[in-house]
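target protein:
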Amino acid sequence: MKVTAGLLGALSLLNLLLIAPVWAQEPDLQVSGNIGQGATDLAIEDLQAIGVSEVRTTTPWTTGVKTFKGVLARDLMAYLQATGDVVTAAAVNDYSAVIPLSDFSRYDVLIAWEMEGRRLSLRDKGPLWIVYPLDQNPEVGKKEVQGRWVWQLNRLEVQ
């Protein structure tokens, strides 16, 4: 009886240790700054609940036309009740770019989590990548705008 109780206790502890990392998982996107509900953490599933859109475009970093799936940046900003003039987008490697909020109303800028039907991984510029509709708006291919295509995106700050 004591052996069984001890074994069950050890298995319960092992189970807790295996599940705990799931509970401690980092959010896919942290958003702060001038937003209605204050700083918030979002998973890709939260972004999907806001709305899913597709953009078919070429990019300076991929070959051929690709189909990206994600949430329109303007829909995310509306959901967050964002107010301000710019968004600072930051990546896992701490690269950051300042993006005018007007880009989100002017273009169908996507915060993409999928390319060609596959979830973006860190190797594929994921988990999130800011994608501009280059083929529909060639002006977003300019060097000063290319820096706004933040990949490995994990933080936004609205200012």
In short: The CA atoms of residues 9 and 15 lie 10 Å apart.
